[in-house]
Amino acid sequence: MSDQKLCRWGILGTAGIARKNWHAIQNSGNGQLVAVASRSQDRAQEYIDENQAEVAHDPAPRAIGGYEEMIAAEDLDALYIPLPTGVRKEFVLLAAQAGKHVLCEKPCGKTPADVEEIVAACREAGVQFMDGVMFMHSDRLPAIRGVLEDCESIGTIRRIASQFSFGAPDDFLQENIRMHSDLEPLGSLGDLGWYNIRFTLWALNYEMPKAVTGRLITTAGRPDSPDSVPIQFSGEMLFESGPTASFYTSFETEHQQWAHVSGTKGNLRVDDFVLPYFDAEVGFTVSNAHFDINGTDFRMERHERRVVVNEYANNHPTAQETKLFRNFADLVLSGKTDDHWPEIALKTQQVMNACLDSARNGGAEVTL
Questions:
Q1: Please, what are the domains in the chain?
Q2: What is the pLDDT of residues 275-310, one digit of tens each?
Q3: Between 20 and 30 A from 3 (CA), which of 21, 198, 256, 347?
């Protein structure tokens, strides 16, 4: 056994996304999965057995029946919380009060007030808070930043557009928690739009929009949902420095996850900005098209170049989900916290809810 100090993890809940992160913790090199909690110990053990059969942790994590018991456990440093948005705040606050660092899925709350309360509680307790946006930890992002700021490839940013969507099957629309207004009240806007908004804010160095608008294109709910949730949503953001941005999310439109940044000299395209397509590298395309006119000969010349980064798409020590857990554990083990992460989570929540407020008011502009 290595003498290296490890961040001791607990997974609070048995959500599907945690299966991916089960492997990421093992690949991180600085983390150890100690326990998994469910409301039932039998369910937690079943979940552990299923995942151990594919990716075995040594020793195997123990099963805990009850979230409060895990939060109180003395042999845990950090909790990964993939619980539904509707109940998330309660357990994040309890975790902070117990001195546990918190990595949670998005959206971080139902409202900005929720996230303000979470951020304040974590800051008061001296624990790190971070949302689970994996692409923020990819080495592709610094490469994109380098192109955006080289003054030649893109020039001054004028427009950002993005789409994140997938065509949900009928059983999803009838049964999934994302179709229940008490569990996931923000629907596709929260589940998918969080990424669109975060990418836009990141590209503009976290400048907040001066105003936003939103449109509820389609809403629906599963049969037992008290209310409908957004399942197709579009939003528009206006920035004081000049750029504008749009985004579209949907559970009804087949898979797309592209982001375009357009400027005065060229544009940048990422075809898989959230979940990289399966490969041993990730990348993006820079375009500086040239329109050439010579008498009757009109030619639009492509002039594209592909920028690649050696990083596996998934289930690998270099993958973005591994780096998420590795970077979080580094903060925990350092004994320091970084306010950047809770601050950008709050900004993302504020923009998202402002877009929803606009949509619920007939698309009226909302000022931030």
A1: 7-135+320-338 (3.40.50.720), 137-317+348-367 (3.30.360.10)
A2: 999 999 999 999 999 999 999 999 999 999 999 999
A3: 21
